[in-house]
Amino acid sequence: MEIKENIEKVRDRMAAACRRSGRSIDDVKLVAITKTVPPDRVQQAWEAGIRDFGENRVQEARGKIASLAGLPATWHLVGHLQTNKAKAALELFEWIHSIDSLRLAQRLERLARDEGKRLRVLLEVNLGGEPTKSGVSEAALTELVTQIAQLRTLDLCGLMTIPPFFASPEDVRPCFRRLRHLAAEINSRQLPNVRLTQLSMGMSHDFEVAIEEGATMVRIGTAIFGSRP
Ligand SMILES: *Cc1c(COP(=O)(O)O)cnc(C)c1O
Predict the structure, then answer these.
(1) DSSP 3-state assignment of 19?
(2) Residue 204 Cβ < 6 Å to ligand 1
(3) Using one digit for the tens of pLDDT, what is the confidence trace for 109-148?
(4) Which end of the chain is less enclosed by CB atoms within 10 A, N or C?
(5) What is the DSSP letter of 165?
(6) What is the mean pLDDT of the chain?
(7) Is the CB of 10 within 6 Å of ligand 1?
(8) Of all atoms in ligand 1, which is nearest to the CA of residue 220?
(9) CB of 56 closer than 6 angstroms to any ligand 1 atom
(10) pTM for the full predicted model
(11) How confident is the model at residue 142, as a pLDDT?
(12) Which residues contact 3 (CB under 8 A, 6 or more apart)?
């Protein structure tokens, strides 16, 4: 019951944020983040209507997705991906939110070509410039977008960010706004094959502000499944 109720509450809050900002709820995808969550609880979220799930580690996702075999869910990788796990990631995920280097993108492109697959990707932007976080810097973003847009088996769909932590969600607003402006600025250059339509931003703590600033995917764990061990 608890998971179902939590999902309903999150959906209500998403709808309210959409109303406040004049957006359609159909334009914001809820991705339930299931790291540390056992398969039976993922199943409960599925039964409550969730169709998109996110994991941050390939290793953990592998076992979980296998034990939920038969569930036609869409899986998203939202955590950092090492090049040596690219093959496994391609098998498990339809979306990768955390591309941050040309090397990783090229590896995925080759693997996808070999398998006759396509993969939807987002570039992770390190907006705070925090050295401990992955993601491409703002300064390097346009060049990386231009390069990755040429890789045939990857669909470059947009940008993702994990902003620095602030106690008040309102303080995160400038980061979310910045990500939207970066995507708009790049789109306005009309580079070949470049159309950034997706913004993956907002977590349990700050998803309403992210929606007000244009998020098209919110990544929510705690508010659905409770706090992690
Ligand atoms: C864990 C995680 C989330 C979800 O965080 P919550 O605060 O539990 O909603 C979102 N995005 C990424 C990249 C994560 O690793």
Answers:
(1) helix
(2) yes
(3) 999 999 999 999 999 999 988 888 899 999 999 999 999 9
(4) C
(5) P
(6) 97
(7) no
(8) 9
(9) yes
(10) 0.97
(11) 97
(12) 41, 44, 45, 48, 224, 225
